[in-house]
Amino acid sequence: AQSVAQPEDQVNVAEGNPLTVKCTYSVSGNPYLFWYVQYPNRGLQFLLKYITGDNLVKGSYGFEAEFNKSQTSFHLKKPSALVSDSALYFCAVRDRLSAGNTPLVFGKGTRLSVIA
Amino acid sequence: EAQVTQNPRYLITVTGKKLTVTCSQNMNHEYMSWYRQDPGLGLRQIYYSMNVEVTDKGDVPEGYKVSRKEKRNFPLILESPSPNQTSLYFCATSLGSLISTDTQYFGPGTRLTVL
Q: Which residue of chain A comes nearest to B6, CA vs CA?
């Protein structure tokens, strides 16, 4: 079975400071990992994904995430937070060995608030 | 412009009154899916479709039906809505059904309240 955990319901950070949104996963094999962002009254938007290769993945809006196999983590990071980054962030995982119709499993979401 | 549209965006209804939430995409994607989002529970998949006339249950299918008669449309049907189906619903699509790395594209959401 595959699962993903986002241990923080809420993350607060001051504008200009670095931000981290945490995600850990559990799969039988190797993972495909995704981050999505949800702005108020909007659907989820894709930020970035890890498939294979370089453990540091760069995505939209200056975000990046680091895949750490030994810690089974895929934390989302940004060097300098903006107020406009305030949103709900979802981590998702799919086992690489699973069939294509195996759904993405989403975490419960982390609400990021960037304070001016 | 590539997009996923859902209608209605907001709906308040009463218990037992059948309703349909439509989802349409213009990207010629094979894979379409419905999720519900509830506080503290994240997104949970209701049903998915790998292509026309191919649908299957997700994690929480009870009380829902779907159909996929055309590639672009994937309506979600609640035959007899109940208050526990009050939720925020998202339709999502991706290019191929057998490619695990595909990015999903989400519609804007439908907020449903069942009284």
A: A43
d(CA A89, CA A65): 13
Strands (E), A1-116: 3-5, 10-14, 19-21, 24-26, 31-38, 44-50, 56-58, 64-68, 73-78, 87-95, 105-106, 110-115
CB contact under 8 A, A49 and B107: no
How would you write the pLDDT of chain A (116 residues) with one tens digit per residue?
789 999 999 999 999 999 999 999 998 888 899 999 999 888 899 999 998 889 999 999 999 999 999 999 999 999 999 999 999 999 999 887 765 566 788 999 999 999 99
Contacts of A106 in chain B (CB under 8 A): 35, 42-44
Count A/B contacts: CB-CB distance under 8 Å: 61
Nearest beta carbon to residue B99 from set A44, A100, A109: A100
How far apart, in whole angstroms, are the C-alpha atoms of residue B2 and residue A16? 33
What are the structure tokens assigned to B32, written together? 């379409």
To the nearest whole Å, the CA of B57 is away from the closest chain A CA by 10
